[in-house]
Amino acid sequence: ANDGYDLWLNYIKIENKTLLDKYNKAFNGYYITGNSETLKAAENELKRAFSGLLGTKPKVLNSITNNCIVLATKNESVLNGQIYAKDYEALGKEGFIIRSVKINSKTCTLITANTDIGILYGVFHFIKLIQTQQISNKLTITEIPKLDIRALNHWDNLDGSIERGYAGNSLWKWDELPNTVDKRYIDYARANASVGINATVLNNVNSNPKILTKSYLEKVKALADVFRPYGLKVYLSVSFTSPIKLGGLPTADPLNPQVIDWWEAKAEEIYTLIPDFGGFLVKANSEGQPGPQDYGRTHADGANMLAQALELYKGVVMWRAFVYNSDPEEDRVLQAYNSFKPLDGQFKDNVLVQIKNGPIDFQPREPFSPLFGAMPNTSLMMEFQITQEYLGFSNHLVFLSTLYEETLDSDTYAKGKGSTVANVIEGKYSSNKLTGMAGVSNIGNSRNWCGHPFAQSNWYSLGRLAWNPETSSESIADDWIRMTFSNDKEFIVPVKKMMLESRETTVDYMTPLGLNHIMAYDTHRGPGPWVDTAAQPNWKSTYYHRADSIGIGFDRTTSGSNAVSQYYPAVRDTFNSIETCPENLLLWFHHVSWKHKMKSGNTLWDEMCQHYYNGVDKVRKMQSSWNKLKSFIDDERFNKVKQLLEEQQEEAVIWRNSCVLYFQTFSKMPIPGELERPE
Ligand code: GCU
Prior knowledge:
Layout lengths: L16 H10 L2 E4 L4 H18 L4 E2 L7 E6 L11 H7 L4 E8 L2 E8 L2 H16 L8 E4 L5 E5 L30 H11 L4 E3 L12 H14 L5 E5 L4 H4 L11 H17 L5 E4 L16 H13 L4 E5 L14 H6 L10 E6 L22 E7 L15 H9 L11 H5 L10 E5 L15 H12 L5 H12 L4 H22 L40 E2 L16 H8 L9 H4 L2 E2 L10 H24 L7 H33 L12
Parallel strand pairs: 1-2, 1-3, 3-5, 7-8, 7-14, 8-9, 9-10, 10-11, 11-12, 12-13, 13-14
Antiparallel strand pairs: 4-5, 4-6, 15-16
The structure holds alpha-D-glucopyranuronic acid (GCU).
Alpha-D-glucopyranuronic acid binds next to loops.
């Protein structure tokens, strides 16, 4: 049985006999120097993979022989100058090389790096090559991560619940820790290391100050100890008023000397327990969370005070830019940019400003946040959401890699054409050295980790894109399918197609043509264009979509809220004109007449209906594709996906019918004849 617990580290024996023999011959054992915890983890992983994939136990060799794998860091004498010093220099702390080489005239596969973590990453990469059956005769691989901090953000509460979590409760068993350390934490760390995720923020951004008490810090230490061999550093979300709540101080003013002392003492306490503690993630002055503005100070004042406390230990502060207020007259889209752009250059070197991909909130489609490219003197990191808050929870099959890719590939024009968001977060245009990407985790304690078997691919993609933001979704999907399910082309081709189209399908039945935030109130599940979705008491139900008898969409052009002007001129002009604005963002930037002629020749109204109907049709196509694949995989996962697709289909119909009928009360136009069909 396969319950999905093994994720993409699913080491099932290779069926193809020829290949099996070939691999068994080429890799008959391994030679390893050093014995750190990290190298032991690498060794264990190799053993596990060999016994699963190749059905053999690799020999542990005392010397290098033909057809062996050599695991050795830079300074090991056995290497005999195999790799140039400058190549090692380029690898940094986490990069690795996998190369077919001859050492003492023995043909072998060398996995080398500057550090043990580099070796572990190399081993995972090597295993992936076997899993995906892509071992070539002459391996020449160099991999270096393009971002420093590759993080999961867990929105896990201390009571075990998870904000916006749809795969059970938190993995962290706070009541058992630190004495009992669940074995599952190791599998969690293995999975992260396998895709290069090196940071985990354990608790919710809506943070409970208790996380910084001595007893919780001891629990955090226990987790940090388990994760350390896998290169996974622990970070915490902290509440800005911790000095009041825990320290009994009358204020949390970041310029108050007692407050500064309190944080410095707290930092010392943390680092005494966890010498490699990563740092803090902070949600401040956002959705009711306290922050420096409560004391008349700026976001920079707040971030810098915390950064100062962590600096001595090389810790960082990830300060979130997700801020907006509830002024019904103001365009929410403007606010993060307006609050943060003026602070460019004021943040200390160990601060990163963490920005959601779009200006609103993890919608099925948003334009990229204009902050990317707008703060050249600040380290900016990307925040994506892996958990499907606005995308059908873990009941809908939505491969988010294409959403991530779309944002990363967007051209900011910050330094002329080709200044993509990916380049911005890689730090190419900035003097600041820290880089990173975070994904709001979709992991819970459900047996298969993420609820939907395909939701695992979103965790996987986040890791791959954080390692290299220029990776294509196509190749990520290909690897993931092979590792998780099967190397059979007859399976890969249709499943990859399903995955790559799935996000657009969801956009079609939820929020086509640039619509957004029309989800049900509070839960964000199901349609709710008729309600105030943002819990802002004074916002009208039409706040986000602005439907009226004339048309629909939010005028953000230069004659509207002017949000377009937050982009560089080339981008601004494209979005500003109804002629050049990409149709998939049309209603984000324009209020458009129901009768407006679209590129297809349809009216806007007809086109919108088309999208809603297409969305449902495409879910049905996914169902029929999936139904043909029964023979390729185990019943357990096959049936689970089948049942979830059925639910998705039902919910897509609800989305379509609700939105079309609701918007029809404004357009007063008929649903195009060819779409009307009996259900
Ligand atoms: C969304 C989400 C909240 C979350 C917030 C955030 O608004 O609905 O649950 O706390 O984002 O990112 O801080």
